[in-house]
């Protein structure tokens, strides 16, 4: 028993010897008493930055594949996340920290709870704004964020996989217009009055594979893009030079997002989406 309590292997505790607490928070408080408020705030800032960097990595690698982070306003979301998470904890620590202060444990726990709540709120905002679907509609791709889709509309989807918001990144789908003329008219009125068009209604979604050939037929070769949109053509040419692809390997389609337009490149043989590029000034 003495060995387990820290009195040394095989040695009993001496009479009256105090048992040291194993509470990690006690160790934290003891170490904190040796720090200045600037040192404590700096350590807190470093830990907060590491957590924010990990969260940002998830955003970029999973929820916002390039260039959707830029086209969907991801920079603004990062400022919110950094402001409420990285800023709030170290700032409070700088203000209230005092070496040897009574109640230091309570203060540290309070800051941890406040910062955790701020991080949860920031992640919630980011998750609500994340791209949920990339929809091929007529002759272009359109990005739909999670917040644009209502639960009622999701439940009307014809396929089970489109009745839930994806958590592992946006799904590539196509939208088929309704065959009923009356329904088409109603959809037109919704687009005019509420700004909600076919991409906002999962009941029109079908797997993109069913419309790959349509996308391929609507795609434009780079030579044609050079004549009509030279700035976009230069961006595509840069991508081709960096990736080693040939001009004949891809076709161009517009990409519509919340904060602007991008370029979508589909394979010139299969019609599958191979790359999305940001377009400055669009």
Structure described in brief:
The protein has 282 residues and is an alpha/beta fold.
Structural description of this entry:
By secondary structure, this protein is α/β, with parallel strands linked by helices. Helix content is 48%, strand content 15%. The protein contains ten helices and seven strands. A seven-stranded mixed beta sheet has the order 4-3-1-2-5-6-7. Strand 5 and strand 6 (260-267) form a beta hairpin. Helix 9 packs antiparallel against helix 10 (230-243).
What descriptive keywords fit this protein?
282 residues; seven-stranded mixed β-sheet; alpha/beta; disordered N terminus
Question: What count of helical segments does DSSP give?
Answer: 10
Q: Assign the structural class, choosing from mainly alpha, mainly beta, alpha/beta, alpha+beta, or little secondary structure.
A: alpha/beta
Question: Largest sheet, described in full?
Answer: 7 strands, mixed
Q: Quote the distance from N terminus to C terminus.
A: 72 Å
What percent strand?
A: 15-25%
Silhouette: elongated
Tell how many strands the DSSP assignment holds: 7
- Give, in order, the helices and strands: HHHHHEEHEHEHHHEEE
Low-confidence sequence ranges: 1-13, 15-21
Assembly level: single chain
What value does the average pLDDT take? Answer: 83
Strand order of the largest sheet: 4-3-1-2-5-6-7
Q: How much is the radius of gyration in Å? A: 27 Å
Helix content: 40-55%
Helices and strands in order, then pairings?
Elements: H1 24-32, H2 37-63, H3 68-71, H4 74-96, H5 104-129, E1 131-137, E2 140-145, H6 151-155, E3 171-175, H7 181-194, E4 205-207, H8 212-218, H9 222-228, H10 230-243, E5 250-257, E6 260-267, E7 273-278
Parallel strand pairs: 1-3, 2-5
Antiparallel strand pairs: 1-2, 3-4, 5-6, 6-7
């Amino acid at each position: 028993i003495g060995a387990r309590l820290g009195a040394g292997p095989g040695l009993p505790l001496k009479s009256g010897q105090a048992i040291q607490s194993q509470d990690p928070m006690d160790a934290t408080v003891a170490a904190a008493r040796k720090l200045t408020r600037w040192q404590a705030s700096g350590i807190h800032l470093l830990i907060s930055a590491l957590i924010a960097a990990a969260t940002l990595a998830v955003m970029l690698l999973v929820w916002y594949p390039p260039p959707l982070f830029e086209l969907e306003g991801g920079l603004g979301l990062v400022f919110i996340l950094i402001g409420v998470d990285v800023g709030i904890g170290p700032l409070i620590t700088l203000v209230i920290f005092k070496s040897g202060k009574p109640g230091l444990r309570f203060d540290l726990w309070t800051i941890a709870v406040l910062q955790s709540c701020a991080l949860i709120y920031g992640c919630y905002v980011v998750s609500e704004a994340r791209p949920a679907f990339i929809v091929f509609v007529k002759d272009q791709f359109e990005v739909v964020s999670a917040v644009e889709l209502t639960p009622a509309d999701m439940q009307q989807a014809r396929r089970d996989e489109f009745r839930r918001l994806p958590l592992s990144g946006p799904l590539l789908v196509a939208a088929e217009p309704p065959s009923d003329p009356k329904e088409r008219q109603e959809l037109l009125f919704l687009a005019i009055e509420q700004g909600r068009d076919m991409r906002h209604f999962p009941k029109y979604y079908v797997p993109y594979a069913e419309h790959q050939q349509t996308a391929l037929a609507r795609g434009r070769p780079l030579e044609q893009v050079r004549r009509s949109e030279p700035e976009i053509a230069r961006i595509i040419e840069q991508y081709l030079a960096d990736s080693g692809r040939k001009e004949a390997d891809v076709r161009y389609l517009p990409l519509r997002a919340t904060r602007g337009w991008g370029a979508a490149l589909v394979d010139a043989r299969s019609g599958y989406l191979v790359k999305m590029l940001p377009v400055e000034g669009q």
